[in-house]
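Lecture notes, part 5. Sequence design as translation. It can be helpful to think of inverse folding as translation between two languages: the language of shapes and the language of residues. The source text, in structure tokens, appears below.
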């Protein structure tokens, strides 16, 4: 076997290792299946009963029960967040999370975390940096293009009455193209013409009594 063939096999092995590491940090990627759902389409949660959850004086808060079941722990946590920060709106938060997802995901893919540091907890920043450092050490680069967000849904929420910290967990399904290249610029993983789905479950946190309206990404998963 020639030395060039051996080198290619070594690089392919490194790429596979990094892809598995990336799955642990961000999520899973799958082939394209359907066109993205239109933003603004009503979700199943929107048709649920709105009779019992009283989060504000005067009746149930549709901003909450449009996204989670009215009897769930998440609904109670969101209601507590609103009591501590009356300006908090679940719908507005999810729109902001949608933009943050694209911004943070692409910063990670490009290996340029500086612009998103204020939106990352220390642990998440360290985890992302470790993967980026490993790529750079192996002289591998990722060329990625963000296509869009197929799904944004709230899957959980918690509120700490002592620290006044709110945590909201969101599921994202994004679409992007991504390839791994070696030092010579050769594609060793991926297809620039194939749209992949990126599934992530991210948790954002914020002190609901603070003046700073920004949320931080504190956990990632799939």
């Amino acid at each position: 076997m020639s030395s060039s063939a051996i080198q290619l096999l070594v690089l392919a092995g490194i790429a596979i290792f990094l892809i598995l590491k990336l799955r642990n940090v961000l999520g899973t990627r799958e082939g394209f299946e359907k066109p993205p759902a239109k933003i603004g389409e009503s979700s199943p949660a929107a048709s649920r009963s709105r009779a019992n959850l009283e989060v504000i004086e005067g009746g149930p808060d549709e901003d909450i029960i449009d996204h989670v079941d009215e009897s769930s722990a998440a609904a109670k946590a969101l209601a507590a967040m609103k009591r501590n920060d009356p300006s908090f709106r679940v719908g507005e938060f999810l729109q902001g999370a949608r933009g943050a997802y694209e911004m943070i995901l692409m910063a990670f893919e490009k290996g340029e975390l500086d612009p998103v540091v204020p939106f990352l907890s220390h642990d998440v920043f360290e985890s992302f940096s470790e993967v980026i450092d490993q790529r750079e050490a192996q002289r591998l680069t990722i060329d990625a293009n963000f296509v869009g967000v197929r799904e944004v849904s709230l899957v959980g929420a918690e509120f700490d009455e002592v620290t006044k910290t709110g945590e909201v967990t969101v599921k994202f399904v994004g679409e992007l193209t991504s390839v791994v290249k070696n030092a010579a610029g050769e594609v060793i993983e991926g297809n620039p013409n194939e749209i992949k789905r990126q599934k992530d479950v991210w948790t954002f946190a914020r002190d609901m009594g603070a003046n700073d309206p920004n949320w931080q990404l504190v956990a990632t998963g799939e």
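The translated text above is only one of many valid answers, since several sequences can fold into similar shapes. DSSP finds five helices and six strands in the chain.
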